[in-house]
Amino acid sequence: MATAQAIPKIGMILKDLASRKIRSSSTGGQLIRTWSASAITTSGSGGFLETVFNGALRFGNFLISAIGSAISFSFTKLWSWVVGGVQFLYNFDWNISDTAIDKQVEGLWNSFGGILGGAVGRAIGWIGCGIVPAATVFSFNQSLGTHLLKEVGEQALDEMLDAASEVINAGFRMGTQATFLWLYKDVRRALKDPNNVFGQGLRAVLGGQTIENWGTGESWTIAKAVENKIESIPNVFWRNFTEEMLEEGSEACIEAGFAVAGGIDAWLAQQAMQNASVLGVDRTVEITPDRSAPDERIILSGPEAVLRPTIVNVLATHQMLGNRDVGVLINGNPTDDTITPGVQERRLLIEFREKTTPPWVMPGRRRARRREITTFDIKRGLTWEEVKIAAKQYTTGSRLVTARLNNGHQMQCYGATEAEALRKINELLVLSTAEILPNGVRDSGYVNPTTRRRSLPYLVYPCKAVLIWKKRTTDLEGREDIAGNIWEEQRIEFDLWPENAPPILKPLG
Q1: pTM value?
Q2: Alpha-carbon distance 499 to 462, whole Å?
Q3: Per residue in 464-484, pLDDT tens?
């Protein structure tokens, strides 16, 4: 019998694969994947124009994300910006006139217009003469159109990305230069003002005539000043030594900086590839365990290898605990029977929440308030619909009404008023064989409630119910009462917030 061999793992950059680019563009480049535990069907009834529009929208989203990745940060780019900035300042004419500054800024803007026009023309040409004809062919022959879109689309994408990268880099470079020129002109004008404090200090150091002549006369650059200083060295040996030392030292510094920056980028890329090959790329997954409760969502983030078992555990935990009581229903508000004459064989606990559907969290992350009502001596054969109708919404508050029943127990309900609480008790007694004793209703509400007990009326809706009944058993597995009888307890829990009954729920026996 042949045994399955382990498939070796291959490390690769997924975003550079052509298949990944095509799939990402067809899905709109979404980062969040939604997983619903139930089946979902969709109908595509849109026409050709809608298809073309949606495709163009997805392609635009993908183009934006691709441009963002193309201009992403790297230490090599950072060092190139530093080198370019230093060279610009080294060769900048610090005695340039205001008129020359305005002409340079105008020249930068005009140059950028040419670069932008070339990029737009390249994009229009590829879209109008490449992608649009391929999309037109796709409407008549999907196989041929798909092939054309794949072939033409990849070349068009590369060309448009190159054009966009050129526009962005040129815009950043020219914008930085224009901003520096504007600031330099404004700062110089401010320093030449006799009333400026910094200008007065500068006049004391350089002289008033020098400041007044700033921006007129011959040009002055750091490069020209250094060259004149070197040429002024009388000894030919030391003049050649100094000139070559500065030239070779600057070039070596630039090359060494690019080597260091490239090494850092390579190390970061290697670490990212190792993490991706071992744990997979980082993903953000949104899980909707129950389609009937779309607001109940679970969002997980992390590497793929960690997310896979976590998703399975989340779904398994939700399936195991989604319809079971974990103890918060029974030991809650004082709605349990306070008089226990004997063993209560059948009782129904109904929980109400101030929210119609899960998750039971209100805006602001506050937990939804709840009320509980216990009904005794539940009839046999009740259906989910009968319980749902009896447990309809009502207005609760700080008025506690207690009703004594003819079976020796009592029901309690918090309502906005005494009449509202008694009405809810009568609605739930439809499910029971017990009745209220004559003169058995007592209003236990607070006349002057404290701040802790005071609450404004609010609506509550049926959330879930638990049927608890006890049966006598002959073995020793149950609980023994004071009379020596042994009882075993059984429970049925079901949700009341959905509009329809659970398909597997049978009439309550």
Answers
A1: 0.42
A2: 11
A3: 999 888 776 666 565 665 556
